[in-house]
Design goal:
globular, 12 helices, 2 domains, 11 strands, D-Maltodextrin-Binding Protein, domain 2, disordered N terminus, alpha/beta, six-stranded mixed β-sheet, five-stranded mixed β-sheet
Length: 318
């Protein structure tokens, strides 16, 4: 029995080594668990373009939105662990999913192989221009004078948690409205059927520049250079509110370490490109690389951090 075990282990070792030696030799798929046009989708396409050129194999995007990102995440968790199916994961799918849903069909930690954290992303609270609200203080005054009449849309966990934290800290009677994606919520703000929303900077900037939506506050801990006059919510009406989203690549559990290293090294090169860095920073995406091992430890820290924020926001899984 002992010899058989040793023989099997050796066979697995050489099989994995052989797999890594030829990697990649076919198309790579990056599953985006949100809809097309979201900041996660746009960002993933930048990575796919880089990998296609670097590896000389097609790298394609497969959008699988729905159920708070769980549909796409589950598909990757059940895929073959050969490095050809990856997930563009976020805090929604891996840091706070258990705070939002009672039934999660995957384990955010044990069912995945961390490849690399890639970026952090900035979002903001905006209102429709027809409300006449120009600042956080205007929002507080309007919401308190019109209890229950301000509804904010959100398309991911960052939006829900930030909105409910704002509600608790600033003592506002505002109501969340769930959307599959942020672009859908934005359409309703623009047509006047929704009062406000949490939006990522990439989708919000064009409409802010035209004056169709009004930025009230930045969710992260610091102002952004694209909107230098817009304060953070932390410094204006909601002390202690700091919500910054993250995004990174994961694969199914069991991907050989050599393949993870190959992928991680190339993602590091992507994050080191100054042209990419400047282009993405203009959309509120800040490249922030962590390799597989560091990313794994960071995932555990992020679960703790988002759990604390969900508790502060008084969010309970449904």
């Amino acid at each position: 029995m002992f010899r058989r075990t040793i023989f099997a282990t050796v066979c697995l070792f050489y099989a994995a080594a052989g797999l890594a030696a030829g990697y990649p030799n076919q198309a790579i798929t990056i599953v985006v668990p949100f809809g097309a046009g979201t900041s996660t989708d746009v960002f993933a396409r930048q990575i796919a373009s880089h990998l296609s050129i670097a590896f000389k194999v097609p790298t394609v995007i497969d959008n699988k939105p729905g159920a708070g990102g769980m549909i796409g995440s589950t598909a990757v968790a059940r895929a073959r662990a050969n490095g050809y199916t990856l997930l563009m994961a976020t805090n929604t799918t891996h840091s706070v999913v258990r705070n939002l849903f009672q039934q999660v069909p995957y384990d955010p930690e044990s069912d995945f192989s961390p490849v690399a954290r890639v970026a952090r992303m900035t979002s903001l609270f905006v209102v429709g221009s027809s409300l006449g609200i120009k600042s956080g203080y205007d929002l507080v005054s309007y919401a308190r004078s019109n209890p229950g009449k301000v509804r904010y849309g959100y398309g991911n966990s960052s939006g829900l948690i930030a909105g409910e934290m704002l509600k608790q800290i600033a003592n506002l009677d505002i109501s969340p409205v769930a959307y599959k994606t942020n672009p859908q919520a934005l359409n309703d703000v623009l047509n006047g059927s929704l009062e406000a929303m949490i939006i990522d900077l990439a989708n919000g900037l064009p409409q802010i520049k035209t004056g169709r939506i009004i930025p009230i506050g930045i969710l992260s801990g610091k102002r952004v250079k694209q909107l230098p006059d817009v304060p953070t919510l932390n410094e204006s009406i909601a002390p202690g509110l700091e919500v910054t989203a993250w995004s990174g690549l994961l694969g199914p559990a069991g991907i050989p370490k050599d393949i993870i290293r190959i992928l991680s090294d190339e993602i590091k090169r992507f994050c080191s490109r100054e042209d990419v860095r400047e282009k993405l920073l203009a959309t509120g995406v800040e490249l922030d690389f962590l390799g597989g091992g560091e990313f794994k430890m960071n995932l555990r820290k992020e679960q703790i951090r988002w759990n604390e924020m969900a508790n502060l926001a008084k969010i309970r899984p449904e």
